[in-house]
Amino acid sequence: MIGAGPAGLSSAAELGRRGLPVLVLERADAIGASWRGRYDRLRLNSSRPFSKLPGARYARGTGIFPTRDQMVGYLEGYAAGRRLDIRLGTRVDRIDREGREWVLRTSGGDVRADLVIVASGYAHTPFIPEWPGRDRFERDLTHAAQYRNAEPFRGRDVLVVGSGCTGAELAHELATEGAARVRLAVRTPPNIILRNPIGPLLARTMLKMLPVEKADAMLRRVAHHEVGDLTEYGLPVPEEGVFSRLKRLGVAPTIVDKEVIDSIRERRIEIVPGVESLDESGVTFADGTRIEPDAVIAATGYRTGLEPMVGHLGVLNERGAPRVVEQPAAPGLHFIGYVPRPAHVGYMAAEAKRAAKAISAHRDGRREREPAPVSGGAAAASR
């Protein structure tokens, strides 16, 4: 098992529950490292009931939208309660096939396994576009992964690039916590919906019951009622609907609280076009206008970072994501946590349960077909 986040932990626990011992390899020195590194005010976009790992409730007092720190505590408790075998500080650099085994080339030496589950996360490696002139830009340029709070930006002119959930939330925090001016660069108008406790249930129901076009139309009506028309503020209604874009590109909608919309309407967050290029002191936008901000925060997303590990195996698509999910990508090789869906934590838990059931059934069937070993037992899963 590669990765000690929600997908990896739930997969390991479900396999263990079925009697298959699992070794979890985690490159960081702590469980849930990607959550620990996010900004201070981060909360889940999906509500607590739709964000549980198999068989585990959140601690009493957890809010309806768990915070970053609550999520970290939840993951730690989950791993401890199930006594998962986790090897921290172990980076997996490459996975190779040798005969009927997989060999994981790790920072601590080779690990051999007959089954490997990659669950290192689709939001793994911070991504900043190669804007022309980026290497010459002399002012502060950071990725949102490095942002913690607004304190270092008090009194400063800040440009946030990217209109996803993170970009919108950071822009709002900056605008209300002391930045002198905040602009949000938007290349493609996002589908905006308000954070709602039953939102995941609504989205799942629509995905299951309706054609994509009808589901898009229904959510567009909901957004029109809750968010309103933001065209005059620089955010026209996008041509492509929520589910169409999710299916085509794996891009989730921008889920925010009403306070973010209020900041846009009050023009405390100024919407500007997408970034075209940078120079020593400024940023030029797609419409040709130029500004000289004190700092640029790139909320431009993440990449899976899977290429060095498995790129040579032919299992990735052009975006670096697994070609095959929900079933083995190659004999004994699975990817879990790479399907973009509403309430992603809960969906990863469901993926883990399905995968563990299928893996266990496959192993049981194989044992029935093969002669009984003279000594020893079945090889340990992911070990």
Would you give an account of this structure?
The longest helix has 26 residues, at 344-369. 30% of the residues lie in helices and 19% in strands. The relative contact order is 0.19. The protein has 2 domains: 6-124 and 304-369, 3-Layer(bba) Sandwich (FAD/NAD(P)-binding domain); 128-301, FAD/NAD(P)-binding domain, CATH 3.50.50. Helix 1 (6-17) packs parallel to helix 10 (344-369) and helix 4 (165-176) packs across helix 8 (258-265). Residues 370-383 have low confidence and may be disordered. Strands 8-17-9-10-13 form a 5-stranded parallel sheet, covered by helices on one side. Strands 3-4-5 form a 3-stranded antiparallel sheet. A 3-stranded antiparallel sheet has the order 14-15-16, with no helix packed on it. It contains 10 helices and 19 strands. With 383 residues, it is of the alpha/beta class.
What pattern of helices and strands is seen along the backbone? Answer: HEHHEEEEEEEEHEEHHHEHEEEEEEHEH
Strand segment tally: 19
Count of all domains: 2
Give average pLDDT, whole number.
92
Write out the CATH superfamily name of the largest domain: FAD/NAD(P)-binding domain
CATH level 1 class label of the largest domain? Alpha Beta
Radius of gyration: 22 Å
Residue stretches low in confidence (pLDDT < 50, at least 5 long) are 370-383
Class from secondary-structure proportions: alpha/beta
Helix content: 25-40%
Into which percentage range does the β-strand content fall?
15-25%
Number of helices: 10
At CATH level 2, the architecture of the largest domain is 3-Layer(bba) Sandwich
The first-to-last residue Cα distance is: 8 Å
Largest sheet: 5 strands, parallel
The third-level CATH topology of the largest domain is FAD/NAD(P)-binding domain
How would you sum up the global shape? globular
